[in-house]
Amino acid sequence: MGTVRIDVTEDVFASLKRLAEPLVDDASAVIDRLIKHWEGVPPPAPGTKTINIKLPAPPTEWRSARGERFPIGTKLRATYFDNRFEAAVTVRGIEFNGKTYNNPSSAGIAAKKSAGTVGTAANTNGWEFWEMLDPTTEQWVSINSLRATRGS
């Protein structure tokens, strides 16, 4: 979990120091305790030890079942006949129509089936089917560009 710097007056800082348990709390721990008190979260029982655990940063990429890497939050789209489909990359995979898929092809097949395509006609190469919104150029490009820049 990252840190954020905030400015407080000297009086507020002095109050935080008074509320801190010496050699245990930092300002963040005191503020956290105050917020929990304000929100009605009961304090730990007397004698209870508190352990602060630093959580790892959330992932920035999702890896498909074959190991291809996608930035989380990437918007995807595809056009099939007169149908426009939208999907997004999440921490769990490619979300389309409320379901999560572990690779671009299975998401593309689901899109084609949602348009009424049946059987083997729904088969598709997801790398050719989906486009992504490139965050730097704000242009839609084939997701094949991820293979070229990131590898698998």
Overview of this protein structure:
The chain is 29% helix and 20% strand. By secondary structure, the protein is α+β, with helices and mostly antiparallel strands. The chain folds into two domains: 1-56; 61-150. The strands form two sheets. Strands 6-5-4-3-7-8 form a six-stranded antiparallel sheet. The chain has a two-stranded antiparallel sheet with strand order 1-2.
Task: Sum up the structure in keywords.
single chain; 152 residues; alpha+beta; 2 domains; 8 strands; 29% helix; elongated
Molecular shape: elongated
SSE pattern, N- to C-terminal: HHEEEEEEHHEEH
Spatial order of strands in the largest sheet: 6-5-4-3-7-8
Q: How much beta, percentage-wise?
A: 15-25%
Query: Which range best describes the helical content: under 10%, 10-25%, 25-40%, 40-55%, 55-70% or over 70%?
Result: 25-40%
Alpha-carbon Rg, integer: 24 Å
Q: Tell me the structural class.
A: alpha+beta
Mean pLDDT: 84
Largest sheet: 6 strands, antiparallel
Number of helices, counting only DSSP H or I runs of 4 residues or more:
5
* Separation, N- and C-terminal Cα atoms: 28 Å
Number of strand elements: 8
Number of domains: 2
Poorly predicted residue ranges: none
